[in-house]
Amino acid sequence: MSESKNRVLVTGATSGIGEALVYKYAQSDIVTACGRNQDKLAEFESRGVSSSRFDMTDKQQVFDAAEKLEAHDIIILNAGVCEYIDNANKFDSALFERVIQANLIATGYCLEAFIPKIKKGGQLVIVSSSASFLPLPRAQAYGASKAALSYLTRVMQVELKDIDVTLVHPGFVETPLTNKNDFPMPCLVSVEQAAERIYEGVSKRKNEVHFPKRFTLFLKLFSLLPFNVWLPLAKRIKR
Questions:
Q1: Record keywords: Protease included (predicted)?
Q2: CATH classification of 7-238, choosing from 3.20.20.190, 3.40.50.720, 1.50.10.100, 3.40.50.1760?
Q3: In whole angstroms, what is the distance from residue 148 CA to residue 150 CA?
Q4: What pLDDT, in 10s, does the model give residues 7-19?
Q5: Which of 21, 33, 169, 228 would be a feasible disulfide site paired with 210, CB 3.0-4.6 Å?
Q6: 22 and 33 in contact (C-beta within 8 Å)?
């Protein structure tokens, strides 16, 4: 990182990992916090953090917000949702569409609108999930959206010129989204720990940041094995 202050934009900034990233970067950089929660954005403003209010799933709002931005050194696309399909035999296509729209299609809107706002030599950071490593129970929508997001990011790493791209694969992080989970979350970390890991990885311009490694390496290992090794374990988790 340059010793001068970077301009950093964070989407999904009004809660969870995004909020922690705003406070982390605001210690040394100039931050634009993006989200829909006006009260939280006003709180950021009161602390000297610029804000931009828009809904990522609304393409016009994304483009209108981008038009008002100056060039940034780092853009972090973090916003997303998590919903589960509880009964695969009664597939919920409306839920599936909502999650794909919020996690994947909306990211596409942001890529089109915000890539021109990244300085030459700057960085694009996309937050996916370690759920993309393996098929997990109830994660038809969430896992599919994050697997597609990871693939999309990898292609952007191949294709983008003059911009470094970091793909983030968090494990379980204690956020308002995961607080709704009704199942054990091994190796759970705090949002502050997650923000620190992401900050460190982006500072080093890593291609991938995944954490906590004692959890993500376990998933990566099983992803390398034949699927019939993982299948009975996944079914056991479901039960």
A1: no
A2: 3.40.50.720
A3: 5
A4: 999 999 999 999 9
A5: 169
A6: yes
Angle between helices 140-159 and 106-114 (to 10 degrees): 20
User: β-strand 7-10 against 72-77: which pairing, if any?
Assistant: parallel
32 burial via Cβ count (<10 Å: 0-12, 13-18, 19+): buried
| 130: region left, alpha or beta (phi > 0 left; psi from -120 to 50 alpha) | alpha
139-169: pLDDT as tens digits: 999 999 999 999 999 999 999 999 999 999 9
* Positive or negative torsion for Cα 41, 42, 43, 47: positive
DSSP label at residue 88: G
Alpha carbon distances (Å) from 48 to 6, 26, 45, 84, 122 = 15, 9, 5, 37, 23
Distances from the Cα of 75 to the Cα of 38, 96, 206, angstroms: 21, 27, 15
Query: What distances in angstroms separate CA 110 from CA 55, 91, 189, 194, 216, one per listed residue?
Result: 11, 29, 28, 23, 27
Spatial CB neighbours of 168, under 8 Å, sequence gap ≥ 6: 125, 126, 127, 128, 198, 201, 208, 209, 210
CA dihedral 112, 151, 97, 127 (to 10 degrees): -70
Phi, psi of 143 (to 5 degrees): -65, -40
Beta bridge partners of 167: 126, 208
How far the first Cα of the chain sits from its last, in Å, is 47
